[in-house]
Amino acid sequence: MLIKLLFIILLLLMVMCLFRALPAIIKGQSSRPLSHYLGRRLLIAVILFGLVVIALMTGVIQPNPSPYTL
Fold first, then answer.
1. Which pTM value belongs to this model?
2. What are the φ/ψ torsions at residue 21 (nearest 5 degrees)?
């Protein structure tokens, strides 16, 4: 349950970074460059991917079964 909550929080942080970058995209000027917000989004995505891989390897989360196996 805790790992799923962490996934949701990280996904919400990714969306928040996108919304914070939106004024920089629209107006073209901001206190921080656009790469700052997009870099943070990339870092969160890498952390999220790593957590998913670790959770799958340890058995905390289970993948859906393949529809092609009998």
1. 0.77
2. -85, -15
